[in-house]
Amino acid sequence: MTRCTVVLLLAAAWCGVVSAALSQRILKVADPQKVSDYSISVIEPQSGATVYSHEPHKPLMPASNMKLVTTAAALKYLGPKFEYKTRVGLSDNTLVVIGSGDPILGDKDTDAKYGRQSGWVFEKIVQALRDQGIGEINDIVIDTTVFDDERVHASWDPAQLNRWYECEVCGLNYNLNCIELTAINVGGIVTLQVEPRTSFIDIANQVEAIASGEGGVGSYRTTQPNKIIAFGKCRNREGPFKVAIEKPAGFFGFLLAEHLARSGIAARGKLVERAFSEAEGFKPLVEFATPLADVVNRANTDSLGLAAEALIKTIDAYGRPDGRNGGWAGGRERIGKYLESLGVPPEEFNIDDGSGLSRQNRLTTNAISRLLLNQYRGGNWELFQVSLAVGGEEGTIDKYFNEAKYRGKIHAKTGYIVGAKALSGVCLTDRGPYLFSILTNGPKGLSRDAINGIAKAIIDEYRSGADR
Questions:
Q1: What are phi and psi of 450, to 5 degrees?
Q2: 278, 352, 371, 406: most buried, per Cβ within 10 A?
C-alpha cells in the first residue's frame, strides 16, 4: 500500500470518527426541541468531506440565506472587480442622469465608511455644473433602463411595501429608496422631521402628543403615490425610522432639482424618466462608482434586501447584449444555471427573488454548502468571507456568540421570515474552517437558540484538546 493511500484512508477514518462525535453534540442541541422540519450540512473544506448532515436534500424556505446565493452568483457573473457606475452629463442644456442599478448610492452606512457627508452626490453635481460655468439648465432626464419597470416583486406582501426591506427596486436608487421620519413633541405639539427633506413626499401628521405613557409612531401609505400618513403617540421623541418611497427615479430627480435650486442653478424644464441614447449627445460631468464588494457586504453583513434585489437584476442586465432591462425572471434563470454548475440538482432549489423575502424561494443545505465550498476553493473566498456577519462583533449576529470562545469565530448569514429561520457560513475552529448550513421551517422548526447552539457545537467539537 502506498503512503498516499494510507494518508487518505487515515483521513477518511478520522472524518468518520469526528462525524459521530459532532453528531452527538448536534443531537444534544436539536433533540430536546422535538422538532422535525430542519436541515443541516457541515463540510470540512480541505477534503470536501461532509462531517455531519441531517436531511441535506430537503428543500426549505431559506429566508435571507437566499442572499448568499445571489451574492455568490454576482461574483461569478459580474466578477469581483465590477463597479456600478452612475453617470451624470449634459446633452445640450439638458441634465442627464444614467442609472446603473447601484443599490447603495447615497446609503448612509456606505457614505460613513468613506467619510462622505449627506447629500454629497448632489453637491458633486452642483460643483460639476459650476465648473462648466452653467447657471441654468432645461430638462432633467433620468434613465433607469438598466432594469425593467417591475419595481415591486409579485410575491412580496403588499401590506409591507412601505417597509425599508420591501422598498422598490429601480435602475436609479438613492438613500435605499427611503426617507427617515422623526416625531418630536415640543410643548404638546408634535412636528415631523423628514430626512432627506424634500417636497416629493406628502406627509399627513396624525401623531398625538402625550405627556405620559409609552409612545410609538408608524406610517402607512394611501392610494395616492407618496402620500404618507404618520400616526401614533409621541411623548418626547420617536424615531428616526425608515419609510419606503414610491417611484425612486422621481425621488432622486426631485432631490436633484431642489439641490440645484438651493445652489442658485435654475431648472427651467421638466423632470423626465426615459431611455437616453448617447447618440443624442452626452458630455460627461461626474461619475459615481460603487465597488461590487461594498454591495455584497451590505447584502450579507447587514442583510440589506435592496442590495440583493439589485444584484439579481444586474446579473440579468449584464447577460444581455444591450445591458438593459435586467429583471427578476432573467436573474432567476442565470442563478439557477450557476447552482446547476455546482452540481446542485434542479429539484433542490426554486429561485424567486434575490433577497429571500419571497415565500416561494426554496434551497437545500446541500445547495448552500456546495456554494460555500465553491467560494472557499475559488478566488473570491476572502471577499466573500469578509462580507458575512461576525458573531459577537459585527452585522446581524453581533449580539450572539459573545463568549470569548465563540466571539469572532462564526462568520455567517442569518435568515428570518415568518415560518423560516436560517444560519449558514463558516466556523473558524482550532482545527481549521468548517462550512455549515442550517435551515428550519414552520412550527416544527428549530429555535434561534438551537440554531446558534449547533454553530457553537461545531466550534466546541474542533477545539484544541486541552480546551475541549
A1: -70, -40
A2: 371
Model confidence band, residue 7 (pLDDT cutoffs 50, 70, 90): very low
Which range marks the domain in which residue 412 is found?
16-79+295-467
Instruction: Give the count of domains, the chain.
Output: 2
137 lies in a domain? yes
Q: What percentage of residues in the chain have a pLDDT greater than 90?
A: 91
Instruction: Tell me the C-alpha to C-alpha distance, in Å, between residue 177 and each of 103, 104, 105, 230.
Output: 9, 9, 10, 18
pLDDT tens digits, 284-297: 999 999 999 999 99
* CA separation for the pair 373, 342 (Å, rounded): 9
In our burial notation (b when 16+ CB lie closer than 10 A, e otherwise), range 50-80 reads bbbbbbbebbbbbbbbbbbbbbbbbbbbbeb
Query: How many C-beta atoms lie closer than 10 Å to residue 99's C-beta?
Result: 25
Pairing of strands 83-91, 227-234: unpaired
Mapped onto helix, strand or coil, the DSSP state of residue 404 is coil
* Among candidate residues 249, 264, 291, the one where a domain is terminated: 291
What local confidence, expressed as pLDDT, does residue 445 receive?
82
Q: Is the pLDDT of residue 468 over 60?
A: no
Gyration radius of the chain over CA positions: 25
Query: Pick from 426, 436, 432, 439: which is nearest to 389 by CA?
Result: 426
Question: Which residue carries 440579468 as its cell?
Answer: 316
SS3 44: strand
181 contacts 135 by C-beta, under 8 angstroms: no
